[in-house]
Amino acid sequence: MLIYLLLFALAGCLFIWIGSNILKKERTPFIAGYNTVFHPKNERVLARRVGVVVILFGVETILFPPVAFFFNFEGFYFGILDGVDIVVVFILLIVDQLEV
Fold it and tell me: For labeling, which of 4, 9, 37, 82 is most exposed (least CB within 10 Å)?
């Protein structure tokens, strides 16, 4: 169980680090189709928003295993949270395209 918790904590720290790098650099070339299909209208704002979502995903990744252990949750709920994070990123991309 301890190895399981440590692996999730390591993965969560990796996501937090990636999100903080996105926030600092304020660039979005990591998005698939960048400059071919997708042209961000306000790259700095989009990078900040996506960076925050990635950091929150990292926090969820760190916190979910202990919570699941103590409250007997299943991984299904973590999958739902992951899906919500992905939908939020897509919504942020759409909002970026709709902003004037």
Answer: 37
